[in-house]
Design brief:
The chain has 130 residues and is mainly β. The protein has one domain: Thrombin, subunit H. Helix content is 8%, strand content 45%. The chain is built from one helix and seven strands, in the order βββββββα. The protein has a six-stranded antiparallel beta barrel. The chain is globular and about 40 Å long. The chain starts with 10 loop residues before the first strand and ends in a 17-residue tail after the last helix. The relative contact order is 0.25.
Amino acid sequence: MIQERRKHHRAKTNLPLKIADKAFDIITETADISSSGIYCRVTRLLPLMSKIEVILLMPAKGNGRQAKKIRCRGVVVRSEPIILEDTEKAHYNVAIFFNDISKKDQKIIDGYLGSEDTENKIETEIQTLN
């Protein structure tokens, strides 16, 4: 049996996401998330160890509440090129480790991962990230 080495719970869920640097802004969504990082697909190469800004849109708990934007800094720790047969455009599966995130924001992510909403895709427009 394989033993899990991760310190933080991880869940497969699609949350709106913006990755930014001085040279670019990428709007995408998570493939999975933990309070220590994300895994997502992007359409440009992000070199290993690139330092980037990450903005996540976490669903609100309860009716009438707004989604919560979490802003943090991250480092690209894995980048895997994926070439799809039905398109000439390459994609990259990227793992980003949060190297600068507040304890409060980590708790918000952990709270979301522990809720029943984790399996549901957020239905907030990605334009909210802009």
